[in-house]
Amino acid sequence: MTAGHRSRLSAAGLLRRQFFAGPVASIMLALLVLGGALLATGVPRAVAAMHTAALEDSLGQFPGREIDVVTSSRNLPELGASTGGTSLEPDIEAIWGAQEQRLLDIRAGMPELLTHVTADPLTVLVAGPTKASVAGAAEGSTSYQLFTAFDPRIREHIELTAGEWPAALTDQVPGPTPLEIVLADAVAEEMEWALGEERSIPIGTAPHDVRLVGTFAAIDPDDGFWTHVPPVALEPSVAYTPGGYIEVTGLGFADPVSWAALQESKLPTTMDAWFPVLPERIRAADSSELTAQLGEFTSQVFVLGGGSWEYWFATVGEVAFTSGLTEALDDAAVAASASDAVLATIASGPIGVMIAVLVLGARVVFERRRTGLELAAARGASPGQLRGILALEGLAIGLPAAIVGGVLGTLLVAADGGVSGWAIAALFALTPAALLVSAEPGLSPLRRARTDLGGPATGRFRWIAEVLVAVLAVTAVVLLYRRGLATSTASTGVDPLLAAAPLLLSLLVCLIVLRVYPVPLAALVRRTARRAGLVPFLGSARALRDPSAGLVPVLAVVVGVSVAVFSSVLLGTVQAGVERAADAQVGADAAVGGTPFTLEQLDRFAAVPGVAATAPVYSAKPTKVTADGRTRTSTLIVVDTDEMREVQAGRDSATPLPDGLSQTGADDVPVVLSKTVADFVSAADSAELDGEDFEALGVVDGRTAYSPRANWVLMDVANAKPFTATLVPRTVLVRFEPGADADEVTAALAAIAGDDAVVVTPEALLAELRERPTTQGLVISLVVAIVLASLLTALAIVLTLVVGRPARDRLLPLLSTLGLGRRGERALVVWEIGPVALIALVAGALLGAALPFVVLAGIDLRAFTDGDAQPAVTLDPWLITAVLAGSVLVTVAAATVASRIDGSVNAARAMRKEEEG
């Protein structure tokens, strides 16, 4: 042997020759491992990305004030410059710097994650409302109410459209120097306030002039900043006074330095200081940690000023921050848990099929190596050496495939899925070696046994295993029904029992199929024995005595078909639930919203041809509910109950409006509460709404068509005046006349509402809900589960027939010498898998139709439908039929392909195999 020459008979050379002697089976097994590792690393990352997108989408539906970390006070800010300097302009820094510095210090002490998801602090002080009197106005003419706001960073939120910025007021108030303000274009127009015009507001016992020097537009109208000021900042409120006169309310911004001159003016004030929450920075995986940090932060008090009394006003002192972000994160966590539970339930079936296919694939590889390994055993190779050879090939198949699959899964989805996916990928990498080594005891050709002698195993172990599977499956179903939805995944996350239930039931059905199918097959054998045809008798006899379909392929067929049918039923159920939720959220034939509407617009809405009735939602603003000293923010909804009943008459989803809701004059204001608020005040000795007593006439669990929040208080417009000074209709529900053209009516409503408003119909909302990340993720998962289960089922059938090929290689050539043609040979191949596959298809279909009634008893689907009620199981016959037809076609195609796998072995070689075997 020359130097450097590598012998082909070395260990490495023999292993290489063995691999390339039959590489197809090994390559196929490697592809299975690659696919499993890709799914193991890619799916958790995709789920994490879906949860984060769903969380951002959910937080985007909350007004900024509800999720920002905010403190609100009626006390005045402590004026003065900061000790170290801030980013405020020098003249503003001299007045607002001290408070700005304290807010920055508070943020610096926040936990790291909370700091990451919030922005630098903002402050706004709103004074008023006060009557802005027009000189020479006649009695009974339109009156004007003015809020005046002071924001140290106002130029970051608005831009001038006309005029100039207001100058700082430094003279005594009241006095001869007017207070300069700017108004939004729409507010200035509705208030009929021209640039340079002066109006007077009462300050103390004397009037003081206010001059309009400019108009503005919001830089970003969707900025959460605008939720911290009255809604009349960008659009005016136009309402009727109790005396029947028109009253217009708006808000103007003054130079923030001017507040130093006005702090002793005795104007009613409210000051918000807050840290804006940045939803795009919040990851779903951080929700629990962020919730804990929020809880810790909001339980503390911080010094925002001296808290001293200055003549007739007090400066702000110690404050506590609140945020609705905790509740929003909790709601998102419930939705994520429900999503995980559904996905785990869906995934359990394909995982079972994947394991079954891996077992079959490893068996095919082993059968390809059997002859060489038997020869090695006959020449003295020890069992340890044989196991080592198999283990090395298994590792050579599994490790590279798992690494490639894991890397692909990581690169395909840009999200953090944790390390659990790589742990599962490592198991896939070791699976081929483990399966191949476990097959080693059957290597001696002297120990080969004919499987066609005798019936299926009926030993004690099989009975024990079958009884154990049946007990586990029945126990899982009973526990799921006893537990129900209330204590399911909404609080516990992914439940192993729930996730395993479909697979356990599939195993039970498989065992039933294996026990039942020999009975009709034996009757078929007896019947065909009396006929002249060879193929039906021989095929049915071989299927009965030497069945290729053991537990593994039957499991693949049953699980594959049941997953497909279950997924189709679940998909139909979710789609029906989304339709009902869309109808409930709109609450009418159409809802117009997005901007405040004037009285003129309300009249024009009602006059549109095809409109039968309209009902405005006059207010949907933040409010405070206090119970035994504890306070939480809620949403105040104000409607005219008579108008709303007319619009929503006959709708199943209408919010109940008790008759006493519009009664006035009682000591306790009649209201309807959401269940969230009702639970908050239920155990309290005393409860108030913005400092006023109230009486709950009803409790509604969930949301209304008037507000997207599930946390609300509803009252009639007749009782609203003490609770809100601005009855601004931002949503109008519309009922169409029978036979009206919906497209024409909505187009007319949109034209009246303006470019910034939106007209929503149940059909349009349905399309939007279907685009939600959670719903899209479920639909994609269901489609992938159907396709993957079908492909794996087909592959399992092919592998099953490939495993049975050695027996056919001995039988078919002999039969061909007796005159059996190629069509008969293929028919015999189909007989190997056909009977049990047909029964498994039927069993899988029945199981798939039954699974939703079992599994959905413990899964909350409201996260996918965006509804307040659990959707009922819906069977879509067309969808189920299509899925079943696809499953049948896949099974038939797989059997046909497997029957055409080349089995051309001549009679002499077949006889030699019989002699050797």
From TrEMBL:
Does the record carry Cell membrane as a key word? yes
Spell out where the chain crosses the membrane.
Answer: 341-366, 386-413, 419-439, 460-481, 501-525, 550-571, 778-803, 836-859, 879-901
Give UniProt keywords alphabetically. Answer: Cell membrane, Membrane, Transmembrane, Transmembrane helix
| Residue ranges occupied by any ABC3 transporter permease C-terminal domain in the UniProt entry | 784-900
Its chief place of residence is membrane
Gene Ontology CC entries for this record: plasma membrane
Please report the record's description of how this protein sits within the membrane.
Answer: Multi-pass membrane protein
Where is the protein localized? Cell membrane
Q: Which GO terms describe its molecular function?
A: transmembrane transporter activity
Keyword Transmembrane listed? The answer is: yes
Q: Which family does it belong to?
A: Belongs to the ABC-4 integral membrane protein family.
Q: Would you tell me the protein name for this molecule? A: ABC transporter permease
* Source species: Agromyces fucosus
